[in-house]
Amino acid sequence: MATQPAPQMLNPGIPMKREWGTAFRALGRLLANGDDTEQVFRIMRALNGDATQKSYRKLLTVPEGGRLAYQRVELASRLTDREWIDGFAEGSVGAAYRNFLDSTGYSADGLVEVSMSASAFQGIEFEHPYAWMGRRERDIHDLWHVITGYQADEHLGEACLVAFSFAQTGGLGWGFIGLGAALKSIRITRKLDFFKAVAEGYRHGKAARWLHGEDYETLLAEPLDQVRKRLNIGDPARYRIAQASLEAAGLKGI
């Protein structure tokens, strides 16, 4: 009986080669079904190259970054501790995140499950500094929704946040998704409101402080308004205009 070849082991220390064919196929599926989150992770793996490695190396250079890297807190386990989440005072980032969980039905462990499905994000489970950074980037995604004000349960909010994330991380996969959604919106709506909101998300990401360098266990206890001011998170005015435009057209997505 012939034996199956052993699967190729990934080394998180080696940047993934860009796979444009995989990225375009995944983008097509994502644009056809904006709720197919697995395709986001496929695009990240196909296009982000060494973005996570660069983020980790940058983390070591910022204040408190070395401590965060040394401690290697797994944020998914913290963010699924409901007793801990319930302890945050009203007005804090943690309280806003609690409201986010309750209103959307999303969860940190749900995001983990999607990232692990069908090998969409291979290597993220490894015991390696870069793999830990990849998990950290995944786990703070919904916190960024809360901090920026971009809703997670709508295609517009996700498109704006991926543009923000592209500006923050340089991960080409984020930019690829944002641009694809923005171009599709022009075809569907015949207007530029959605496109302008995505462009605003990118500008806000460039203007904001580097959010990867934050201690999120501490940040969750801070007042949300103060965090937005401290991190220079811009007011998403174009985003609200696009929301109203889609609502007036009777569109919940694109």
Automatic annotation (TrEMBL):
GO BP, sorted A to Z: ubiquinone biosynthetic process
Superkingdom classification of source: Bacteria
Keywords associated with the record: Ubiquinone
Stored InterPro entries: Coq4
One Pfam family per UniProt: Coq4
UniProt xrefs under PANTHER family: UBIQUINONE BIOSYNTHESIS PROTEIN, UBIQUINONE BIOSYNTHESIS PROTEIN COQ4 HOMOLOG, MITOCHONDRIAL
Name assigned to this protein: Ubiquinone biosynthesis protein COQ4
Organism: Sphingomonas kyeonggiensis
